[in-house]
Amino acid sequence: MTYRRAAIPVLAGGLLLTALLWWAGASENALHLQGATDALGGRAVADLQQWLSPWSYDPPDSVRFGTGALGDIADPASADPERYLSLYETGMQIRFATVFAVFVPGALLLVRRLPPVNRRMPATFLAVWAWGLVAGTVAVTVSTPWLIASHGRGSYRLLPQLAASGGRQATVVAALLAAAVTVLVARITAKGAGPLPLHAVPARSARLAATAGTAVIAFSLLVLSYESVAASIQTISVSDGLLSEPGDLLRQWLLLGGWSGPAGGPVGHWFLYRLADLLLLAVVWWSLRLLPVLLTRATVPATAAGAVCATVVGLLANQVLQGAVTGADAGMRWGWQQLAGNLGHGVPAALPWGLLAGLTTALILRLTGGRAEPHATPAPLPAPAALPDRPLG
Questions:
Q1: Contact 61, 112 (CB under 8 A)
Q2: From the CB of residue 107, how many other CB atoms can be counted at a distance below 10 Å?
Q3: Backbone dihedral angles phi then psi of residue 35, each to the nearest 5 degrees
């Protein structure tokens, strides 16, 4: 699929994703009305405000009224609140621009190398959806320093504040709708693009490459995410200054989960939660196993982007299963509320580990000679030769 055919659906999806996130942020102000509390309930309104506020252009009171980090006396925000309001608006402009700027090239690569034809449509949809979550995560991370500075406390615990940035719940829903539109438009533009067959990859090479890539993900999920190791990462300390407390940020970008040994509860319950971790690894392995077959050309960038998306999809499956277990224990209503709050957790760590897993998969495929080849189609039988005319007798 050419870049020209892939650009139209990707641009449509990128604009829709940006518009949906902007609309979600604009809706946050309506939740402050009494009617919203009466209709939805206090807890639901509080959760929605927390999920939508990272995308809201409406600045918080600490920026609007100059009640920043130091209070009413010698408050830096109260000295010139208009400049801090401008800084907040600049941060939000960077956030929405980054969403579009990150989504478009990644989705363009995915749609071009993974066009929604020949039974690829579910895979394309999941990949574009996952990439939308990645775009939202990167946008929030890149723009958060401006928003921190707009509160008048840019030099106070910068890294922990950077790690506390949210907005992933709204991104899950917005990216889902944007992916659906992108894939449907790509399905239309792919017509007439010529045959895009599936590829044949040696089974041994594909399994070996998928296992190596999954081992990279398992290192974060099972080794680094263990309670004692995660605590050691949390307590990492460096010299004073802006980078003095990296523990929270390192955990966010290095750990795909968190677990400990069974203690104080039934072992069967502990195994249910570990089953969710195994589901994540199974989704990643199966995705990496099929990726060289589904890609029109298994390039290193396409394999790396596909591995990131596979990791994000595995995380979502993990969180849905954990939410179902929690809902069965604590009541379905609380379980699904907790599931909605946890959706998208771990996406920052999926970006570096997914890239590393994709590079590992591509390297193993090259070393083992597992390059994809189109399925051979049998050549048409030659037409029977015409018999020469001979006179009878």
A1: no
A2: 30
A3: -60, -35
Structure tokens at 24: 């979600």
Residue 127 makes CB contacts below 8 A (sequence gap 6+) with: 110, 114, 305, 306, 309, 313
Tell me, what amino acid is at 208?
L
**Strand boundaries in the chain, DSSP class E:** 199-200, 373-374
State which amino acid sits at residue 260: S
Q: Scan for tokens 């478009």, then name that residue.
A: 104
Q: Which of 356, 294, 289 is nearest to 110 (CA)?
A: 294
- Report the alpha-carbon distance of residue 293 to residue 284 in Å, rounded: 15
pTM of the model: 0.87
CA distance 267 to 298: 43
| Class of residue 60 by CB neighbours under 10 A (exposed 0-12, middle 13-18, buried 19+) | middle
Is residue 132 a contact partner of residue 171, using CB atoms and an 8 Å limit?
A: yes
CA-CA distance, 62 to 78, in Å (whole number)? 9
DSSP 61-100: HHHHTT--TTTTSS-HHHH-HHHHHHHHHHHHHHHHHHHH
Q: What is the pLDDT along the chain (393 residues), one digit of tens a residue?
A: 788 888 999 999 999 999 999 999 988 888 878 887 778 777 788 888 888 889 988 887 666 665 444 444 445 445 566 778 888 899 999 999 999 999 999 999 999 999 998 888 999 999 999 999 999 999 999 999 898 888 776 666 778 888 877 778 899 999 999 999 999 999 998 886 666 677 778 889 999 999 999 999 999 999 999 999 999 988 887 766 667 778 888 999 999 998 888 876 677 778 888 999 999 999 999 999 999 999 988 899 999 999 999 999 999 999 988 888 776 655 555 556 667 778 888 899 999 999 999 999 999 999 987 555 554 434 344 444 444 444 443
Q: What is the C-alpha separation between 349 and 210, in angstroms, rounded?
A: 19
Distance CA 199, CA 196 (A): 9
Does residue 310 contact residue 354 with C-beta atoms inside 8 Å?
yes
User: To the nearest 5 percent, what fractions of the chain are helix, strand and coil?
Assistant: 70, 0, 25
Q: What is the DSSP string of 49-65?
A: HHHHGGG-SS--HHHHT
Residues in the chain: 393
